[in-house]
Specification:
Its cofactor is Mn(2+); Mg(2+). The chain is built from twelve helices and 22 strands. It has 423 residues and is of the alpha+beta class. Strands 10, 11, 14, 15, 16, 17, 18, 21 and 22 form a nine-stranded antiparallel beta sheet that branches. Strands 3-2-1-4-5 form a five-stranded parallel beta sheet, sandwiched between helices. A hairpin with an 8-residue loop joins strand 7 (140-144) and strand 8. The relative contact order is 0.14.
């Protein structure tokens, strides 16, 4: 098979790495790719938003399967464009990807179908949001309705913070048009867990659990980021909790989408909060999580291309997903200043020490190749993933591996997976 992967981040590198291990695949392309993906794929200089050029490339090069990585093209309808051309593509159509593209849509869906989530209200005028905040109890959560690179969520502990947040999101457009509408919801407490699932429209098969670390600084302080590291599995995601979620959240969501005429085929990401009252949905995503993918796929035993094809063909019920009985931790190496201002173009050293390893891996996010070698080209630069018999072993291994990499202005959190040690 010839496979095309659309995207350029750590998630897409992890997908390319996994696809390259499929016996069904001979050739891999990635558009636009990055400095690490080039190890497995021929990188094509086509933006993820240029649907026509991407479809033309797939058509002209007889691509057998295209895998869409990022949220933006999915929400904008890239899958519809490919399907209209008769091209085989993995990912939800535009009318299903709205489950991530609009938080107000997803909240209304959960309310309508009794899927457990936080209480909320939706606003399209700042003055109405201000009035609502006058009678709220705090803390409270503000969410920009649209896509905001994982950063459009503000936790406000005081009314003054919430008022300033409404101004930043709705009036100053800190997250662009994503803030045209605002969701204000109750603040939930508990352990967060991420669960990714394959879907074929009627059958849903969940992967092993993971936990992300969104804040930029140790101790979950600082600004929200796209993710500073993950571990898998979550020790807090018990068989009892999994059973509850399978009955009242996972299948219920897939059935709700089908009932709404929005059949979901692709990856459905469940961001969960394990509250005292039981699991609640924090958010949905319509694609692989980043950096959750970097700890989930290394533990997956299946040929991922077979699973992708089963989702497209509606035969996912015949697939038995299997994962290694171990653990994995991913530590993101970022550029100092991220998610704010940061510099690019610094040479990365130590990458050669990750070649042909089966105990730790390096997934490129913000990198590119230059005449000097691989250089930094983004806020989140690399994801260093290591496996271990236990979560503690995996954490120790990941931090040791992270020290093998050097570049100017390198920054990382030092407490990824530290919650493990509290058990």
């Amino acid at each position: 098979m010839k496979v095309l992967i659309v995207g350029s981040g750590g998630r897409e590198h992890a997908i390319a790495w996994k696809v390259a291990r499929s016996e069904k695949v001979e050739e891999i392309f990635c558009a636009p790719g990055n400095g690490g993906i080039e190890e497995y794929a021929e990188c094509i200089d086509i933006p993820v938003t240029d649907f026509i050029s991407l479809a033309d490339f797939a058509d002209n090069n007889k691509i057998d399967l295209t895998i869409i990585g990022p949220d933006d093209p999915l929400v904008a309808g890239i899958v519809d464009v490919f399907e209209e051309r008769g091209l085989r593509v993995f990912g939800p159509r535009k009318n299903a990807a709205i489950i991530e593209g609009s938080k107000s849509f997803s909240k209304d869906l959960m309310k309508k179908y009794n899927i457990p989530t936080a209480a909320y209200e939706t606003f399209d005028k700042a003055e109405d949001a201000y009035a609502y905040l006058e009678q709220c109890s705090y803390p409270i959560v503000l969410k920009a309705d649209g896509l905001a690179l994982g950063k459009g969520v503000l936790i406000c502990y005081k009314k003054e913070e919430a008022m300033a947040g409404v101004k930043a999101i709705m009036l100053e457009k800190q997250f662009g048009s994503a803030g045209d509408k605002l969701v204000i919801e109750e603040f939930m407490t508990g352990r967060e867990v991420s669960v990714l699932a394959f879907c074929d429209g009627k059958t849903i098969k969940t992967m092993t659990s993971a936990q992300d670390h969104k804040r930029a600084e140790d101790g979950d302080k600082g600004l929200n980021t796209g993710g500073m590291g993950t571990f898998s599995p979550s020790p807090f995601y018990t068989d009892k909790i999994k059973g509850f979620c399978e009955r009242y959240i996972y299948q219920a969501t897939l059935d709700a989408m089908k009932a709404e005429g929005r059949e979901f085929i692709g990856i459905l990401f469940f961001g969960l909060m394990l509250t005292e009252k039981g699991p609640r949905v924090l958010e949905y995503n319509a694609r692989f999580g980043d950096p959750e993918t970097q700890v989930v796929l290394p533990r997956m035993k299946n040929d991922i291309v077979e699973v992708f094809e089963a989702c497209i063909d509606g035969t996912l019920d015949r697939i038995n997903l299997e994962f290694e009985d171990n653990a994995a931790v991913c530590v993101v190496l970022a550029s100092q200043g991220y998610p704010g201002h940061y510099e690019k173009g610094f040479l990365i050293e130590g990458l050669d020490q990750f070649k042909d390893r089966d105990d730790f891996y390096i997934f490129h996010a913000g990198t590119k190749r230059s005449s000097e070698g691989v250089v930094t080209n983004g806020g989140r630069v690399l994801g260093v993933t290591a496996k271990g018999t236990t979560l503690k072993d995996a954490r120790d291994n990941a931090y040791k591996a992270a020290e093998l990499v050097r570049f100017q202005n390198k920054y990382k959190r030092n407490d990824i997976g530290k919650a493990i040690e509290e058990i």
